[in-house]
Amino acid sequence: MKLLDRLGNIEMEENEISVNSNGGTEQVKRMIGSMLPEGLLNDFQVICSRVRKIDESKIRVYWLHDLPEDPETSHIKDKSSRDRFHKIVFCGNWQYNQYLTRLNLEPEEKFAVIDTPIIPFEDYTNYKGNNEEIRLIYTSTPQRGLTILVPVFIELAKKYPNIHLDVFSSFKIYGWDEADKQFEPLYDMCRNHPQITYHGFAPNDVVRDHVSRANIFAYPSIWMECNSRALIEAMSAGCICVHPNLAGLSDTSGNLTDMYQFVSDQQLHAQLFYKKLDAAIDKVQNNHSFGSITQQRIYANYRFDAKRIAKQWENMLLELKEKYPEGTRAPVKNLFVYKSN
Fold it and tell me: Closest by alpha carbon to 136, among 285, 10, 294?
């Protein structure tokens, strides 16, 4: 049985937002939950980002997926909030250091960094130098970079009639259908261009199938994010990954991708991205990237391998279970109370 076929049954906490979402946080949470030994999570309350109710009978693990400025997570600047949890897990090194710096936190034993996992791509089949068609792909929500990608691609399509862009992008992945309305003109630009296929939202296995056949992951991100699961999957699949060094993307990539300097001016960003994407297309046409892509895949498949990361979670939870037996798990008094804005 393939590992992907096992995903679905989990024992991690859901909230009113996550229950209808298939975003990266939810996919990762459900993946790890399905890979841990049966029954291990019975002693734990694993909360992803949004704290609602505290179960005093459980060992509480707070798993952060957002930025320190987010009001749903910034409360951990208060010791009374941190005291509610037995472990606080960050999803990447850049994010961890942002919390230390911006919330003025001191490193402590309670903190841990565990990378975002993916199922590595087994076959390296998408390097197609000198083929008639060169396939580009975008697999993130629209606000992260689609407004730059689409006009840049349309210009490049005038130069390269053999390029094609697959766009998997919609807020439906979070269950936020209404949020797509402001991007409908951009989606229509995709739908109406003969060299672009707009797919909207699709299940991860469908997206992965297209990523496995793509040559270039085109990601002119303008969005501060802790890391990017879309980028990790593209690296594992052997795509040339073109993206800026914004926020956690540099840590995620390991400097092994076609990364460029981020600029806040979107017009200048588009010009930089055009040049970088043009060069990536040329690489595919002339077989100039095979060696670097091989190193990129080895790195991504090891660092972000779901089996290895699930084992890190298992070891951490077993240590916590030994350290906090039943009867010792209640938080300190004067509990922090979250107040929404």
Answer: 285
